[in-house]
Amino acid sequence: MHDLIHDLAKFVSGELCFRLEGSDSWKVSQMTRHVSLETACYSPSVQFEAISRYPSLRTFLPLHRGWRLRVLSFSGYDVAELSVSVGGLKHLRYLNLSGTHIEKLYDSVSSLYNLQTLILNDCRKLTLLPDSFGNLINLHYLNNGETKLKEMPSQMGKLSNLRKLTDFVLGKGSGSTIKELGQLHYLHESLTIWNLQFVNDVRDASLANLKGKKYLKLLKFVWNSNTDDSVHERVVLEQLQPTTNLESLSIIGYGGTRFADWLGHFSFSTMASIELRGCKHCSSLPPLGQLGSLKNLSIVAFDAVLAVGPEFYGSSPMGKKSFGSLKTLLFEKMENWQEWNSAGRIGSGAFPVLEQLYIKDCPNLSKAMPSKAFPKLKMLSLRYCDSLESLLELTDSTINSDASSLDSLEVSNCPNLVSFPKGGLLAPNLTQLLLQSCLKLKSLPEKMHSLIPSLLLLRLTDCPELESFPEGGLPSKLQSLEIYDCSKLIAWRRNWKLQSLPALLHLYIGSDIAMESFPHDEAMLPPTLTSLEISDLQNLKSLDTRCFRHLTSLERLKIKNCPELEFIPNEKLPSSLRLLSIIMCPLLRLRCQQEKGELWPMISHIRDIFVY
């Protein structure tokens, strides 16, 4: 209404509002915001050709009631209101309003009795559907994801032909209760049920009959507030038992102290992915090890869990290993988690094919990890684990063997890590080692050139106490070396001996230290380099000419945020160079201007030059 009143003042000038009544009448301002088509002489294709010219359109009063239009889409248009006249399109089968600014739909939409597809996703201002929405008895497909709907309208159960419903929103008001889902027998694909805290009668949860919806594949349960009745929440979850054909399940914000008995039952033979998040009152995990097809598992924000043990592995049938198909496992924001037990016979053979393990924000985990549990592990990521140094020692025997398949190790934000235990967490097949924000780390693993001979990428970020590379140098197969905010290590750069690395292709250096010239030593950079990046050297004034003469393979040179840098080599950069990028280097930018800059002759031969 604010827009309408504001724009009404400009109506007389014809600047913002007009009516199409003649063949030339749409030749008006691009600022047009309100359009009315009041004659029947325009075909739908002509009308949409007309409105596509007006990017500021807010209201469209569109069509003659006599037209037999089947498809209507405003997807992506800046439309804030849909006219009641749309209700006259009795033959409409498909209506797409995705990405518009519509806040509500009028009751007239409910008279589109032949409508089969309604797309409302990404209507981020949409809060209400009409009370008479249940009249759309022929609706097959309703996509209402990414909206602000407060609740589903009453009598949703009348839409018995629905095959696809993305989101079912429960509310406090007089809208549909969860039992209305019981009449939607043919739902396919995915369904998210929001605001489960509003289920007051557990019988309603049972009448939703999720167990009988055999075509559902992905299901998400969401609670959006704390509860004072954990028993009620558990009974509700128990009654929401889904079809055993389910492939993916998410449970978010559940307030019970333990999970329903059906979760983790081996009868869910097709379950491939599970996410459990924000279940803060649960002190133990369900027996998910019994799910033979489970491939991806995320467990996030379980404040009450102190230990993970036998209950997690369950009791798999004889001959079956717990988590026999699991490939990716994430534990995150487990603030009070202290212990991870292997649970004897069952746990010792668990995770036979696990490839990726992520442990994040688990500051108190220190006592154990499953013994001999990761024979196929390829990626291990440890972040924000304050008690990591004990942890590393305990995992030494777990994955350090000639048969280990571990090829990527990330250790991030672990403030108590000072050094690596001998051999700890290092395997001969390791190809990537990423260390970030380990503020007390003083040394890299001893003899890493022989312990991890296959290392290809070494990334060191924000390790201010790290002083040098280990004795014996870096592994000879290393191809990429990235060093950022490691001030002591960069200050020690004269002793890096990178020229002894015959395979090094990429070098990245970034740090705010008092370095005026780079690299200082002609022999510092190996001739094998194809890519060199320099970033955030606030005091850097020049690049050393001598060091670039022998970089005959260099193809990419990127320089970023070096505000004092004014000089590059005073002779042509290597002829092999194909890309030069200079970003946030104001002094150098002026000197490298096309044709005008005094350094232009030194760089003009380069194919791609980007100067910002």
From TrEMBL:
<dbReference type="InterPro" id="IPR032675">
    <property type="entry name" value="LRR_dom_sf"/>
</dbReference>
<protein>
    <recommendedName>
        <fullName>Disease resistance RPP13-like protein 1</fullName>
    </recommendedName>
</protein>
<dbReference type="InterPro" id="IPR057135">
    <property type="entry name" value="At4g27190-like_LRR"/>
</dbReference>
<dbReference type="Pfam" id="PF23247">
    <property type="entry name" value="LRR_RPS2"/>
</dbReference>
<feature type="domain" description="R13L1/DRL21-like LRR repeat region">
    <location>
        <begin position="178"/>
        <end position="300"/>
    </location>
</feature>
<feature type="domain" description="Disease resistance protein At4g27190-like leucine-rich repeats">
    <location>
        <begin position="338"/>
        <end position="463"/>
    </location>
</feature>
<dbReference type="Pfam" id="PF25019">
    <property type="entry name" value="LRR_R13L1-DRL21"/>
</dbReference>
<dbReference type="InterPro" id="IPR056789">
    <property type="entry name" value="LRR_R13L1-DRL21"/>
</dbReference>
